[in-house]
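This entry is listed as follows:

___
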Amino acid sequence: MSLTQEDIQKANKWFAIECNNGAWELASKPDLTTEQKHELLLTAYASVYHWSKVGEPVNVARGEMLLAHVHAIRDEGDIAMRYANSIRSYYEANAGDPWEWGFVHLELGFAFAILGDKDSAADEFAKVRELIATMDKEDAEVVEDELKHVQTILT
């Protein structure tokens, strides 16, 4: 069976979306097992790989948000910080919506917390709260829920 370029593009987009959604869903669960954390890691990287084939740079940047989040969940602070800094650099060079900046600061705060820098984490989480006040209701709820989830993980 021979696939056309269009078939491959459609498949890449489908996998990008499914892996992204699956990873965020898994990341939202409490008390992940070692096996679940491994699945989360593989799913997140698969999402970014597929976005790199069919998406725009913003899709890859959002994928790196997910990677920062996943590595923080896995207590891999250095890697989480590398991705958090990468997405901050991306959004400093490109316009981002308030919800995207909210996630930038959320992931920076999460990474700082995992690295043991509680003051910097608190500063980043305060920026998230300031941004939430500027978002429409739906975006604000998503970011606020994720902030609460991260703070639950950290306690």
